[in-house]
Design brief:
about 30% strand; eight-stranded antiparallel beta sheet; Pnp Oxidase, Chain A; globular; about 180 residues; 4 helices
């Protein structure tokens, strides 16, 4: 931890909240670097979870953020939504720094991810097989959890995932509120 770091070291409650935000996410704000200008960009994307629980998304080649991720896979995701009442900044949120990697249609995982995605986002059946759509996985590097006033934590990728034997795939049958 850097000297004078304002973030708390993670405890079990922070790890559990971060994991819940990550696994419960159905949408995220995606921050990326524009390859033409190196300026930052941001977009709202749908989020799903692969068989390993890692976040993934389905992107069209028409989307500027897809070209950006292909040029520079370093990105950030903001997860967590404001609640129905109160100041939106008092609700927990997780900023995840990640590396995005495309999944080729020829990859043996593509069909598995397709089935998982459709279970999580059934309305994607309309466009998922269009040739311009493809999956990207997000490999978490670090994260910042804002759990409320004076409760901010710096997390590592290891803090976000339980030991492999404890790791369970997310509930694939849970409907998405926007699908």
């Amino acid at each position: 931890m850097p000297p004078n770091d304002p973030y708390l070291p993670p405890d079990d409650a922070a790890r559990m909240l971060a994991r819940a935000l990550l696994q419960g996410a159905r949408h995220a704000a995606l921050a990326y670097s524009d390859p033409a200008t190196a300026s930052p960009g941001i977009s709202r994307i749908a989020i799903g979870h692969g068989p390993d629980g890692l976040p993934l998304t389905l992107l069209s080649t028409l989307a500027a953020h897809r070209a950006a991720l292909q040029a520079n896979p370093a990105c950030a995701l903001l997860l967590g939504e404001p609640g129905p009442k109160g100041d939106p900044l008092t609700h927990p949120r997780l900023m995840l720094q990640a590396k995005a990697s495309p999944v080729a249609r020829a990859d043996h995982q593509h069909m598995l991810l397709r089935d998982i995605w459709l279970a999580q986002h059934p309305k994607a059946a309309v466009y998922i097989d269009f040739t311009d759509f493809g999956f990207f996985r997000f490999e978490p590097q670090t994260a910042l959890l804002n759990a409320g006033f004076a409760r901010a934590y710096r997390l590592t990728a290891n803090d976000l995932w339980p030991a492999p034997k404890e790791r369970a795939a997310p509930d694939r049958d849970r409907p998405s509120s926007s699908d």
